[in-house]
Design goal:
Helix content of chain B: 25-40%
Oligomer: heterohexamer
Distance between the termini of chain A: 25 Å
Radius of gyration of chain A: 18 Å
Radius of gyration of chain B: 14 Å
Helix content of chain A: over 70%
Number of helices of chain B: 2
Strand content of chain B: 35-45%
Largest interface: A-C, 30 and 28 residues
Bound molecules: adenosine monophosphate, sodium ion
Structural class of chain A: mainly alpha
């Protein structure tokens, strides 16, 4: 299983970070790279979307949202009763793993491209759909429905958070402008995509290194969960993709989305809605273990899984 | 040159609280505030700004003693348990007391 | 009248901003995009300049400077006596509208390109020439010539301000290096131009949203002025372009320059020379109303105007 | 350890004034200054740095009482009417009095 | 609301010292620190952040008087001769004395 | 001797800076450009490295390291006894001139390309090798071997400093991924290289302007040294390149490396290890004089030197 070159940049960042190198990308640059990735992914998806009929998409969209609701419901009892975590911590981590990581999605796209595997390019739509539901479930798991959560500021925080605004905005612009309308801006958003992703992963490696060092404190269970649950979720995602009649590539991407854990939208939302949950716990799991596992080991596995499913299912 | 005494309330807290802290201090009677980005370390560990909203903000409010303790009490009650936050109060001289 | 895709990014920023989204580009990135745009525009103009003879340019240059002196003299009485604004405020706003907005120029260039309309590419030279004169007029209008203004620091502020230095620098480098000399750096400055413009407009949308919310305070007159005066100025600019024998595209660009209002060089200069003028007033007009009006409605109108002028004038 | 009393003058003002404020404080006898970028809100409304020079700067000057009030008086006279600016003065102990 | 007195130690020094200063203050008993980026001017000339590590950092430590003077003494001995650095100490009130 | 367009950006920055323009690139952007340059240079070198055998490289690598050890030993006595500088200052400056400047290397590469001269593209390897040795020599010269320097934190500072980590990381990734592996990221790292270099030089010009103004204080000797020593070093570097059987281009590059003076890695290391040395002294020399001299005058000279050497040596 050969590593995609972009992943080598992650390794470089990880090694440099673990060796306590002074290397750091300024936060403004990290922000810039994130904005470029989110818009590029949204735009690509939107262009493709303009070729689809809502009729074919609607059922897929519903199924995907359903998956986003179910995943945290499976994660929670594992965390609460097997892992013996406090209720708010278990609920918060469940929300992280029910939601998605755009960075992981981007690596999956790059990997499929390097493997010459095609997929349904409107999938960024699913990324958007998957961010929200798990958050709602997580909050209800932490609070119970009875105790009134102030949903308004929360919905605002999530729906108007950077990632959803830029992904949705990109989708709409791509959809409105269409393939040739996008041409003049493809120089920045598409030709540079993999390079931008490489730099982004370099910084992610440095950030991950910071999380890894914190892992020891949280014991073995969290590490095991952060590897085992994504694989379980990937199987469900792949199964769903197959049932929805997605291509091999599409199935692999949906598996990756299921396996990925959020580290942007959900942490912010949880900090607001479930402040008693320890944010470093969920970040250590999603950033320190799951993200590196997915991009270095998981994604190739999920593609293999999708392949075997399709060859089996014929 | 005539000056008058006021309190300088300094709050260091995780950046995620910025909007809510602004609402709070204004509601509790502050006529203004100044914010700078900061990083640091305390009982809740290292906080640095080099990714997302993981950094701190440092907010200063010049106000009278009553407002200062009102804000301090409010922040203590609502945020100390679950958020990275400290605050401290000093004495300062100002030129235009009516402003603060 | 279809919107150029780059303008959709402005709309995205505007909507996100009005919805109070947390989305923001770091100021360092906004600076970066501005530098790229200013240099790219300057370079393009410089390359073209190296193909022109001063003889043909000199009269045009003089005419354009004259326009920069006259526009604020028309705007001032309207603001002072119709709008009943304080003298310094009227003078400051007049200076803003006599000067130019590079962002608006960039959108006009992008729009003409998407419409397949060519124009005299040395026009960035006019952008430089138009920044300064209106500032001088504005200051004299505020102070009268009698009361000594300290011109030295002011000239320094304007001539050595970011926009003039980078535009002029770009012009000179483009002029010195020529078309093939520029080749090796076109990857950054030209191939990415529209993408960079799109991101810039995204941030401009967010900034504009902040201004719009402030508009209510200033009453209807300012809004009307911020739309009516640009259209009046556009007619003068188009007329001048036509008399100077510019192409349809060139005429449209000169109309756009006349219609655009500064929001970088002039605010800084006025803060220094006419501090008693309220800066939020002029920004609300030029950023909150005129900029969005020009890029979303004005520019296509100005092109139509240029076309009819030329077909009429034969 | 021997220390001496000095004044800590803190000025928060719109960034456009940076160069002029630097000239002023040096001319009025300050031996140094420290500047950090800031945003905030006061009687002239919200000021944030996320575009052009629309933010604030926060300048600190450690100096003796006379210098402090000289600077304060100068700034009040020249800038208070037309610019976003506040200042406040506190007491601090320093190790090398000769420096300040 | 009950408060207690503590010292606020502020250090402005060249950014290159950041890591070592952090080690020092923690070893000398500070329970935390807050750092902001700064530029400025002093006896060693202008220091601005616009290239590499040529800027300053501004570090604040809230602690008791003994810790404050211990840190001050240490910094004076080890850095004053060769590095751009100043420090000053003020009085502040804190809510949770046990934290500092 | 025509200036490469990228050098015109340096001139623009220098002039703007000397005229006290407010123009500045945000430090985050300067960081970003540096990261891009270091990675791009490393990647290019790494790709080429994957085509070389260690057997042929080893002797060259040793020779280059040796040069890095000897250069400061020649510089030191000149600075100490001719220039009458304090021991720590002389040692620190010697270290700066024994080490290398990546920015100068990048300009040399751009210049050779514009002249159509090829060179051994694995040379970034030499850049890495040359950063370290001079630092060790400089410290020993300042302290003597007797007085124990704490080398551990120092080695950490240098080996894990930004420049070595990114250059080495780039070399390894380029070496591992190979020419076609790099393809997908060439859009960002290679196609934009010269544009990024141009912006970097613009900022370097502004920084240099700040240094120049400080030069007066240090008297004539420093200025003379900062021009004469690089030329001396260039002769040695060219000679070595010729003896190692490098191509004309390679000889010119090695001469440039010898002539260049560090302004990133070494200043940081010296601040840590020889704090009593005045950092503004060495920066004024390397940034205020040597850097501009090399990119505007030196590099073409060094190429001419390499040419004559090869035509003479046949
Ligand atoms: N003793 C201290 N002195 C200065 N700043 C502190 C101190 N303790 C905490 N802080 C700041 O307050 C933030 C939150 O503190 P904590 O809630 O203790 O983690 C830290 O990240 C520091 O920036
Ligand atoms: N009461 C206050 N406390 C802290 N900072 C203030 C206060 N009032 C104003 N400021 C700061 O001073 C700047 C200018 O104040 P003003 O001139 O009142 O708009 C504001 O943007 C704030 O950053
Ligand atoms: N009198 C002062 N007031 C405020 N800050 C100062 C003062 N003197 C020095 N500084 C700050 O401390 C840094 C180092 O000072 P110095 O060691 O004197 O160069 C300077 O770069 C300033 O940021
Ligand atoms: Na998931
Ligand atoms: Na105009
Ligand atoms: Na050298």
């Amino acid at each position: 299983m050969t590593l995609d070159p972009v992943v080598l940049f992650f390794t470089l960042g990880l090694v440099a970070g673990l060796a306590r190198s002074e290397l750091r990308l300024p936060s403004a640059i990290y922000e810039f790279l994130t904005v470029l990735l989110l818009l590029a992914i949204g735009l690509k998806g939107g262009v493709e979307l303009s070729r689809q009929s809502l009729g074919t998409l609607a059922p897929q969209m519903l199924a995907v949202i359903l998956m986003g609701l179910i995943l945290p419901l499976i994660a929670f009892p594992l965390l609460r009763y097997v892992g013996r975590l406090k209720r708010p911590d278990a609920a918060s981590i469940a929300a992280h793993y029910g939601s998605v990581s755009v960075g992981t999605y981007a690596v999956a796209v790059a990997y499929l491209a390097s493997q010459g595997v095609t997929f349904e390019e409107y999938m960024p739509l699913f990324v958007v759909l998957l961010e929200m539901p798990a958050i709602v479930v997580g909050i209800v798991l932490a609070r119970g429905i009875t105790r009134g959560t102030r949903w308004a500021p929360l919905a605002h925080e999530v729906f108007l958070g950077k990632s959803i605004v830029l992904l949705t905005g990109g989708l709409l612009i791509g959809w409105a402008a269409g393939a040739e309308g996008i041409q003049p801006i493809k120089g920045l958003f598409f030709d540079l995509f993999k390079g931008v992703l490489a730099l982004f992963l370099l910084e992610m490696g440095l950030i991950t290194a910071g999380q890894v060092t914190g892992l020891r404190r949280y014991g073995l269970f969290l590490v095991v969960f952060a590897i085992a649950f994504p694989m379980l979720a990937a199987v469900m995602g792949a199964g769903l993709g197959w049932m929805l009649g997605l291509s091999v590539g599409g199935t692999a991407v949906l598996a990756t989305l299921a396996a990925s854990a959020s580290y942007i939208a959900v942490p912010a939302a949880m900090r607001l809605a479930v402040p008693e949950a320890d944010p470093s716990l969920s970040l250590a799991a999603s950033l320190g273990v799951t993200f590196p596992f997915n991009i270095m080991v998981g994604i190739p596995l999920y593609l293999a899984l999708a392949r075997s499913l399709h060859s089996a299912g014929g | 040159m005539h000056t008058e005494r006021r309190k300088l309330l300094t709050i260091v807290a995780e950046a995620a609280l910025e909007q809510r802290m602004i609402k709070d201090v204004e509601r509790l009677g502050a006529h203004g505030y100044t914010i700078t980005a900061a990083c640091g370390k305390g009982s809740r560990g290292v906080r640095n700004a080099d990714w997302e909203r993981n950094g701190n903000i440092r907010m200063e409010v010049v106000c009278d003693a009553t407002t200062a303790s009102a804000i301090a009490a409010h922040l203590k009650e609502h945020y100390y348990d679950n958020y990275a936050m400290i605050l401290f109060i000093g004495d300062v001289e100002v030129l235009r007391p009516e402003k603060f």
